[in-house]
Amino acid sequence: MTASDWKKITKQLRNKKAKLSKFLRHNKPKDRKTGIAKYKCERCGRFGAHISSYNLNLCRQCFREIAEEIGFKKYS
Question: Which residues of the chain fall short of a pLDDT of 50?
Fold first, then answer.
């Protein structure tokens, strides 16, 4: 089930509380504890090449774009 399908189904079931709770109990995606999908870029949503040091939570592409604005300097 893709994310768009997930949003469509929950949108349709909002008025039916009992069916929504049963659907969420059985079909809700589980929180990731390990693996590549645990960390997500806060700016673009990519999963790979994640920089989590200094609590940045950015992928490397977004980090390169906004590094100077944040205050990082390129030495070489």
Answer: none
